[in-house]
């Protein structure tokens, strides 16, 4: 018997709640098969991935260190994704935020002023916003596709970073490594607990999450539920092509990504170097979707992906798993999520074999 | 060869990567499927093509298996976005991320290894021509086959029944279905064809153009191919010109180095992307013209119900 999808009259809330769990279950199943194909021990690898990150206070603190930037960027991207504005370049906006923020300690190497860190926060946000603003300008003025522009701008941002690291901003005492000086203490967030890398930059994602939640409740919230239920398409198209939405989405995302980049260089990294983003800009896309583009869901999704990142680092050592496995796991998560989400709007039913189809053999 | 001839010859080779991938994306988009996973498909195929060629010594086998690898990745996109009706943009991105991860895993044992590129063919008499001879008539065979393919695709899309059916699926799927063509089947086929060509593009990049494997070696070329389809306003001839233009731009770094021009190499590396952004803005600014040429149902999920 053949099946086909039939659109539900209203999206199913029950299925929507179940989708993330089904997604994770299927992804773990598929990853297990891939591990078997590679001849790895499935039990050992999953233990390293999901259990070991919780076995020491230090690795738990590291989970929260990764949780911060993922949460921050994903909350901002979700605002745009809900409005069908596809900012894929958070990675580049993050780099520009890190560069703008890093300019302060690079030029004021010896200053221990208490204004250093606030200046870096402001510049980090502005740096990310400026980079996103290019895409917003080209989209609203010239109709240039924001997916391609934000993505290409990431490649350009990376080259700007390389130029600075190999040229004017290179640490003169750095044995020619492509990196800046280590930032002074005044340019770093103080740790929350002494001896751990987790620091007070975590406040930014938490505040931003509250903002994102209020923003959604106020702008979409009740209204969207009513309209979304009665006329899903009308809700999708209502006002989303407006230039204001493009600017707002991109600037908010640029600010968040810039702050995330700033938090990295004023936190665990402590300088500008070639890899300031750890791929958070891309992972945040997956976090935003896995959290169903909802501020509360994104909190859980960001935590889950932070665990995966730490688990991947651990499995790299204890289970000899290549680093690409984490990327594959993330890709599988998103692919599975998108396929599973279909059941929110559609239900499976046996295909009707009509006279017409019996006659026309082609379909 | 003089440096200038070398530059022109290199342009043709570099352009072939862009052209193959962009032609595949063109066919997929003509059927209404916006597949943003080109980068991922190319990366997987580049890794597979390299590993097969390295292990067997056969470039042909490398190309064939890489083509299948490209199809395999494209089918992941097709199943999720056509069968499971998921958003094409998000699915393409997901497949791109998955493909980049897979390519790193596949190529892990072959990182930084190299192979000998296949020899080029000398077309007799013509290759002896002064100046243009070595440039135009001493390339490897894939360069010529790709040009031939571009002509065939242009003919097929515009002059044949198959092309008409593909375009119908992309312009008005409901009407195509009413004429008892299966839109889903056509779109599956077009996406798979795009995967095949992206696979060839990846194999060309890793076994002929720069015959080595390094993680991340596709370096945005799949995305430029997607942009090329927009530049070419979904017309084969213009996509061909665009691919050759970008082949030239991507060689800028080599040329500047050989001429000793004092431009930071990072600026030259960023140049293809800056040019892409600029050209995209110029072409897209005429929104009405772009709408006229873009397949009407491009990117729209087809669930068989009435369009709303």
What features would you describe in this structure?
The complex is a heterodimer of chains A (363) and B (308). By secondary structure, chain A is an all-alpha fold. Chain A is built from 13 helices and two strands; from the N terminus they run βααααααααααααβα. Chain A has helices spanning 13-37, 42-51, 57-82, 90-107, 116-142, 146-166, 203-230, 232-237, 243-265, 280-290, 295-318, 324-345, 355-359; strands at 3-7, 346-350. Chain A has a two-stranded antiparallel ribbon. In chain A, helix 3 runs antiparallel to helix 9 (243-265) and helix 10 crosses helix 11 (295-318). The radius of gyration of chain A is 23 Å and the shape is globular. Chain B has helices at residues 3-30, 38-56, 59-83, 88-107, 132-137, 141-159, 161-171, 173-178, 183-209, 221-231, 236-250, 252-259, 265-285, 287-293. Chain B is globular and about 60 Å long. The mean pLDDT of chain B is 90. With 308 residues, chain B is mainly alpha-helical. Chain B contains 14 helices and no strands. Helices cover 72% and strands 0% of the residues of chain B. The chains are: A mainly alpha (363), B mainly alpha (308). Chains A and B meet through strand 1, helix 5, helix 6, helix 10 and helix 12 of A and helix 3, helix 4, helix 10 and helix 13 of B.
């Amino acid at each position: 018997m053949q099946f086909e999808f039939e659109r539900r009259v209203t999206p199913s809330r029950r299925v929507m709640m179940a989708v993330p769990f089904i997604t994770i279950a299927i992804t773990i199943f598929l990853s297990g098969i891939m591990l078997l194909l590679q001849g790895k021990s499935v039990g050992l690898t999953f233990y390293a991935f999901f259990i070991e990150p919780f076995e020491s206070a230090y690795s738990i603190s590291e989970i929260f260190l990764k949780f911060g930037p993922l949460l921050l960027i994903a909350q901002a991207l979700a605002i745009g994704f809900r409005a069908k504005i596809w900012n894929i370049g958070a990675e580049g906006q993050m780099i520009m935020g890190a560069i703008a923020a890093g300019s302060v300690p690079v030029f004021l190497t010896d200053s221990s002023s208490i204004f250093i860190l606030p200046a870096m926060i402001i510049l980090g946000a502005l740096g990310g916003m400026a980079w996103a603003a290019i895409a917003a300008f080209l989209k609203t003025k010239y109709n240039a596709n924001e997916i391609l522009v934000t993505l290409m701008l990431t490649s350009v941002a990376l080259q700007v970073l390389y130029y600075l690291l190999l040229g004017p901003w290179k640490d003169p005492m750095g044995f020619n490594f492509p990196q800046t000086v280590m930032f002074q203490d005044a340019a770093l967030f103080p740790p929350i607990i002494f001896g751990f890398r987790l620091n007070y930059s975590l406040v930014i994602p938490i505040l931003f999450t509250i903002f994102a939640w209020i923003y959604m409740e106020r702008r979409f919230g009740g209204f969207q539920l009513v309209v979304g239920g009665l006329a899903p398409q009308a809700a999708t198209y209502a006002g989303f092509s407006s230039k204001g939405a493009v600017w707002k989405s991109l600037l908010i995302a640029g600010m968040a990504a810039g702050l995330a980049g700033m938090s990295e260089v004023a936190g665990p990294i402590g300088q500008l170097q070639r890899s300031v983003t750890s791929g958070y800009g891309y992972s945040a896309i997956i976090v935003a979707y896995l959290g169903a583009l909802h501020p509360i869901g994104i909190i859980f999704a960001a935590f889950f992906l932070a665990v995966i990142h730490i688990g991947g680092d651990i499995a790299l050592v204890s289970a000899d798993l290549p680093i690409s496995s984490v990327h594959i796991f993330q890709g599988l998560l998103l692919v599975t999520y998108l396929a599973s989400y279909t059941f929110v709007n559609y239900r499976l039913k046996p295909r009707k074999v009509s006279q017409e189809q019996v006659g026309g053999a082609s379909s | 060869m003089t440096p200038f001839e070398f530059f022109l010859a290199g342009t043709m080779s570099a352009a072939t990567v862009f052209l193959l991938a962009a032609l595949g994306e063109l066919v997929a988009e003509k059927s209404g499927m916006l597949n943003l996973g080109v980068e991922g498909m190319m990366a997987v195929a580049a890794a597979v093509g390299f590993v097969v060629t390295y292990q067997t010594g056969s470039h042909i086998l490398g190309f064939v298996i890489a083509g299948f690898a490209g199809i395999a990745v494209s089918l992941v996109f097709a199943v999720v976005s056509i069968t499971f009706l998921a958003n094409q943009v998000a699915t393409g991105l997901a497949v791109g991320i998955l493909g980049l991860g897979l390519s790193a895993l596949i190529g892990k044992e072959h990182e930084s290894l190299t192979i000998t590129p296949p020899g080029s063919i000398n077309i007799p008499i013509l290759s002896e021509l002064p100046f243009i001879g070595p440039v135009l008539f001493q390339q490897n065979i894939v360069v010529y086959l790709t040009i031939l393919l571009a002509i065939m695709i242009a003919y097929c899309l515009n002059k044949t029944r198959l092309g008409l059916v593909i375009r119908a699926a992309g312009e008005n799927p409901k009407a195509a279905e009413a004429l008892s063509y299966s839109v889903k089947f056509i779109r599956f086929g077009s996406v798979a064809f795009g995967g095949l060509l992206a696979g060839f593009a990846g194999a060309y990049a890793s076994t002929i153009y720069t015959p080595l494997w390094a993680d991340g070696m596709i370096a945005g070329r799949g995305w430029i191919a997607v942009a090329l389809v927009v530049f070419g306003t979904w017309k084969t001839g213009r996509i061909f010109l665009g691919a050759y233009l970008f082949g030239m731009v991507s060689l800028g770094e080599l040329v500047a180095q050989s001429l000793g021009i004092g431009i930071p190499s990072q600026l030259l590396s960023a140049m293809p992307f800056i040019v892409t952004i600029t050209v995209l803005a110029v072409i897209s600014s005429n929104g009405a013209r772009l709408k006229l040429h873009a397949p009407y149902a491009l990117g729209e999920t087809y669930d068989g119900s009435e369009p709303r």
